[in-house]
Design goal:
The chain is mainly alpha-helical. The chain folds into 2 domains: about 50 residues; about 70 residues, Arc Repressor Mutant, subunit A (Orthogonal Bundle), CATH 1.10.10. The protein has 4 helices and 2 strands, in the order ααααββ. The chain has a two-stranded antiparallel ribbon. The chain is extended, with a radius of gyration of 22 Å.
Length: about 140
């Protein structure tokens, strides 16, 4: 019986989370209805709504990487080597996952983009800095 305050706190937290989910579902339904009507008007003007890029970024999970693995690999590589490029980390990751970076250029490009996006996110967080421009961009810890 001494844990009743814990249970009541958890019940309150659960109720709060469930309520937030209900609110977000309502908001999602409202936004989907609005999007439908905007798409219909665009079609009247001869536009194809599917061809319009979606703003924002919702990363797609890769079967090759676990949660936070990409950022962890970036940070470890910078600790080990000082300065890195996204391609350096991508090649190393591919080899460690028994993939051939020279033979599978499409996968190498995908890995490289994932590491580059993560490095930009780390820069925005103030954890790393970008050195150079263009193809010679390198990254290092702050």
């Amino acid at each position: 019986m001494g844990d009743s305050f814990v249970i009541s706190g958890l019940r309150e937290k659960r109720s709060s989370i469930a309520g937030r989910i209900v609110d977000l579902r309502r908001e999602t339904d409202r936004l989907q209805a609005s999007l439908f009507f905007v798409d219909e008007v665009l079609k009247l003007y001869g536009e194809e709504p599917a061809d319009i890029p979606t703003k924002g970024r919702m990363p797609k999970r890769s079967a090759y990487f676990g949660r936070n693995e990409v950022s962890r690999r970036c940070l470890e590589a910078m600790r080990d080597h000082g300065e890195i490029s996204a391609d350096d980390v991508a090649v190393r990751a591919m080899r460690e996952k028994a993939l051939d970076p020279e033979a599978d250029r499409k996968q190498r490009t995908d890995f490289g983009k994932r590491f580059l996006v993560t490095l930009h996110d780390l820069k925005r967080q103030g954890r790393v800095e970008k050195i150079g421009v263009g193809r010679g961009v390198r990254w290092r810890l702050l």
